[in-house]
Amino acid sequence: MKKILITLCISAITFLGFAQGNTRTQELGKYEGLAMTPPMGWNSWNTFGTNIDEKLVKETADIMVSSGMAAAGYNYIVLDDGWMAKERDENGNLVPDPIKFPNGMKVLIDYVHSKGLKFGLYNCAGTHTCAGYPGTRGYEYQDARFYANLGVDFLKYDWCNTAGITAKEAYTTMSNALKKAGRPIVFSLCEWGDNQPWEWGKPVGNLWRISGDIYPCFDCEFKHPENWSSWGFMKIAEMRKDIRKFSGPDHWNDFDMMEVGNEMTTIEDRSHFAMWCMLASPLIAGNDFRKMKPETLAILTNKNLIAVNQDKLGIQGFKLTVEDGVEVWVKPLSDGAWAVTFLNRTELPKTINFDWKKHPIKDADFGFEADFAKNTYQLQDLWKNKSAGSTKKNFAASIIAHDVITLKLIP
Ligand code: GLA
pTM of the entire structure? Predict the structure, then answer.
């Protein structure tokens, strides 16, 4: 009898333990509400790769504030791959590279916070990061505590060296670990869209990459010798235009860090920025602020375009039509208005003569409509910041190769 009672007690305790465990697992998941509009900031990777250090971060933070970037909405400074030493310490903790960051990470993060900015770090779900530094696999809860103790606000979590694990599980584990660590940290999934994160990522992270890496070109594919490709910004826009219904406040399709100010022409930079705004992509600059030209700053801080990106409806725009190589992208906005971008995808100058009445807009994913035969909208040119007539007349303009015109249609 005693034996039976003991067995019963053990079973009950085990059952309760499991039940509790299950309940707790369900309660975890991402920190909600940290990215109700697409996150804006700066990331080191596109320009600096692993050549990052304390001086670069401090100078970038200083310029983020002094240049007006912070006032325009850019507030995350994110260190990508290369911030760590090659080995964990004897307790298994991550170690910032002592040469690049001689004063450690805490002092630097405090500095960034003192400027009114937020700070992000990078790691990877695999055994090692893409550049070969210690990955988080098997250390999820320990690393999450490490970030929380440092005061990190954003974690970009990559997908190299992940043989044998599944993306949904690996990202869910890290999401739970971050929540458990108790500090609100924006969780940025970076598995390149290989495992359709838009289908399972909403309770897990605040944004997810939807493609392989960006390349500073308009429409090219750059083939790396190791058999993978990086993509021009229009290639990325095109390849993921059909998953827009999965993106929205606090769960964004991430079209990758921007290449504005890197190797493209100013015209192409403008188109790139306009597209990222139309697509409601996170706006993470990837240029060297210390060498930023005035025209680059003007593009990145364009208030009208940023308002399109940060619109609280949070709807990813879509391609309405193409006429003679000029694409027309549209995005519904919260005040009943629409953003419309004409983009010349060709290598030649083009003439636009757009008859609004022939192009009613129907957003099948979100249920918005604009019928220009019934309703007239006033046009505001968002780059020139001036009125451009109304939808009563055809919209007539010339547009050089790779350029954009972005209008706001106000009912
Ligand atoms: C992957 C990511 C990039 C960058 C590098 C770092 O390629 O997609 O954005 O983080 O790794 O190694």
Answer: 0.93
